[in-house]
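Aim 2 progress update. The chain analyzed this quarter is reproduced below.
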Amino acid sequence: MASNQNYYDVLDVAPEATTDQIRSAFRRLARERHPDRFQGEVRRAAELDFQAITEAYNALSDPEQRARYDQGLKSHRSDAPTNPQDISRAYLAKAIGLFKSGQVAEAEHCFASSIAHDAANARAHHLYGMFLAQQPGKLDEALRHLDQAARLDSANPKVLVDASKMFARARMTARARRFAQQAVQIAPDDPGVVSWARELQNSGGRG
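Predicted structure tokens:
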């Protein structure tokens, strides 16, 4: 799914589409891109697609949200960044600000939008994963984003240690140790990295 699509592009409908057409498009795409139909790396891509599809449908199926979204498209069309990576970074910066001000739901929306515009944004995956890890019942989703961040930015010891800690919290010991070992290899003189790897080893991987 192209990362520079707006909600109408995501659902493959015209801006003038009716609510019924939007609902029909969502159902079709949701069936086609449901993560349960895929495995491995393809499943991860499908998860991002499904997230984008759901986000688009939630916005466009609600008349008030759609009106605000349409107004936003019109007002930002001329001066908003058009590069997907720039859009992603803008959403990420907004997400961080919203989270710091306690606007959790709005922050989550912006985190998801950041990744929808640039699925290769390792920092967005990392920060979104850490954000989700603090939300009740969202540890599994957090782990998916942290795993992706570690894959995209495999030379960043901070990302690797954060991923390791969250996988240890989920009692996924082997994965937690692997990320910790990678971090130690990259930053063998970093006391925090070494301390965590030692703690993980001594605890048997318990979070």
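The CA atoms of residues 60 and 66 lie 5 Å apart. The mean pLDDT is 89. These observations will guide the mutagenesis experiments scheduled for the next reporting period.
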